[in-house]
């Protein structure tokens, strides 16, 4: 599942669809809205802008992240997963999905851009602040899942170059930066600063599985 706001402008058909849906909701709640109060809102010439701002918030929220569902092969080491991704990226991108495991941990990989106030300074964010941003979004560090998402879709980083990190048992952070076009950076660093042109990648359990788990708790 991928959620992407495309660069092309919205169509007239989409505008009509939005208006139709809003009209249906207004008719459904008509009896609960007093006429005099509605008249006061309509007297405000900025009322349309207020409604549009709320719509724009929703559009921006959807456009600020990308979600991919992956199956993580738990029988591979991190290096083996990275090698498989590099082969898929640089050799035969079209066949990458065919090589993905059928069995394994099913996760969602989320790419997101931090909010302006989440950045450590102008143009960069630290690993510590990345950890905070991941926690706010209920995401975890999972390099295997991020690599699996890129192995399944080797073009993922072309429009959204991204960074992910994960700590080992000794607390050392291992990172992967995937820039697209066969450009991959890996290493270990406990005090990295990430350029704001990069998206941040984390993982989570798919929504329906989270809901089922909460239901049975």
Task: Summarize the structure in words.
The model is unreliable at 1-7, 92-103 and 210-217 (pLDDT under 50). The protein has eight helices and eight strands. The chain has helices at 12-28, 35-43, 47-63, 78-90, 127-136, 143-152, 156-159, 207-216, and strands at residues 65-72, 105-112, 124-126, 162-167, 173-180, 183-188, 193-195, 199-204. The protein is elongated and about 65 Å long. The longest helix has 17 residues, at 12-28. By secondary structure, the chain is α+β, with helices and mostly antiparallel strands. A hairpin with a 5-residue loop joins strand 4 and strand 5. Helix 4 packs parallel to helix 6. The protein has two domains: 12-61, no CATH class; 64-216, no CATH class.
Structural features:
single chain, 217 residues, alpha+beta, 2 domains, 6-stranded mixed β-sheet, two-stranded antiparallel sheet, 8 helices, 41% helix, 22% strand, elongated, disordered N terminus, disordered C terminus
Topology:
Elements: H1 12-28, H2 35-43, H3 47-63, E1 65-72, H4 78-90, E2 105-112, E3 124-126, H5 127-136, H6 143-152, H7 156-159, E4 162-167, E5 173-180, E6 183-188, E7 193-195, E8 199-204, H8 207-216
Parallel strand pairs: 4-8
Antiparallel strand pairs: 1-2, 2-8, 3-7, 4-5, 5-6
Question: How would you summarize this macromolecular structure in one to three sentences?
Answer:
This protein has 217 residues and is α+β, with helices and mostly antiparallel strands.
């Amino acid at each position: 599942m991928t959620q992407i706001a495309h660069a092309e402008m919205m169509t007239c058909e989409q505008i009509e669809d939005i208006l139709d849906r809003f009209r249906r909701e207004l008719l459904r709640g008509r009896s609960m809205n007093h006429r005099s109060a509605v008249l006061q809102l309509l007297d405000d010439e900025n009322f349309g802008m207020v409604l549009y701002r709320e719509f724009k918030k929703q559009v921006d929220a959807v456009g600020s992240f990308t979600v991919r569902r992956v199956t993580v092969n738990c029988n591979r080491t991190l290096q083996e997963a990275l090698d498989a991704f590099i082969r898929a990226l640089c050799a035969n991108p079209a066949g990458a999905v065919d090589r993905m495991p059928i069995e394994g941990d099913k996760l969602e990989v989320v790419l997101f851009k931090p909010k302006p106030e989440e950045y450590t300074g102008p143009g960069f964010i630290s690993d510590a602040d990345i950890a905070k941003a991941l926690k706010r979004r209920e995401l975890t560090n999972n390099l295997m899942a991020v690599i699996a998402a890129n192995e399944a879709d080797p073009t993922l980083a072309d429009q959204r170059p991204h960074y992910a990190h994960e700590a080992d048992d000794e607390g050392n952070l291992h990172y992967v930066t995937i820039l697209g076009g066969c450009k991959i950076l890996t290493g270990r660093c406990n005090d990295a600063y990430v350029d704001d042109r990069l998206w941040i990648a984390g993982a989570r359990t798919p929504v329906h599985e989270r809901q089922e788990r909460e239901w049975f708790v």
